[in-house]
Amino acid sequence: MPTITALSCTIVEYVQRLNTSENNEMPEGDRIKVCAAFQRGDDTTGVWPLKMKRALIHSILRGHPIGTIMLVKPPGAGNSTNHYILDGGNRSRVIRDFLNNEFTIDTEDGRKSYNELDVGQQASFANKHLLLQQIRIQRADPHDTIAQMFTNLNTMILALKDGE
């Protein structure tokens, strides 16, 4: 049976773990990767339109819940094996991209990127906590455990489209 650990971290801490190409000092095993096998889109691009991205950022700024991000390590993984995002890839990319000023949100003062927000709003966003579930598959678990978890999370409610 998989081992599940629940934790939280700030947005800044999470994005540092996610942006490993820009932070090569991050030790292997602490890094978080977007895995194309589990996510729609690749490491750099997701499938959410700008409207959905802006809605997620507004939810975070308002303190609304955005759900748990699920990370998985495959069976037999050691401490140096990275975590892969099982659920929450698009949310992760949106958070990372906003923090990196790659899109703007609508504010009372017009459209602003992260760096254009006032210092208090920047600090509030960067220090919001994300809920994470770290799932570690055990060697004794069936070989298709990760695939089964993914299928149950992502295809039972709404079928995937062709190519997804």
What are the main properties of this structure?
single chain; 164 residues; alpha/beta; two-stranded antiparallel ribbon
- Strand proportion, as a percent range, falls in 15-25%
Computed Rg: 16 Å
Distance linking N and C termini: 28 Å
Give unreliable regions as ranges.
none
Strand order of the largest sheet: 1-7-3-4-2
Rounded average pLDDT: 82
Percentage of residues in helical conformation = 25-40%
Protein structure class = alpha/beta
- What is the count of helical runs? 5
List the helices and strands and how they pair.
Layout: E1 3-10, H1 11-18, E2 32-33, H2 50-61, E3 69-73, E4 83-87, H3 89-99, E5 105-107, E6 110-112, H4 119-126, E7 129-136, H5 145-154
What can you see in these coordinates?
With 164 residues, the protein is α/β, with parallel strands linked by helices. Helix content is 30%, strand content 21%. Strands 1-7-3-4-2 form a five-stranded mixed beta sheet. Strands 5-6 form a two-stranded antiparallel sheet. Helix 1 (11-18) packs across helix 3. The longest helix is centred in the middle third of the chain and has 12 residues, at 50-61. It is elongated. The mean pLDDT is 82.
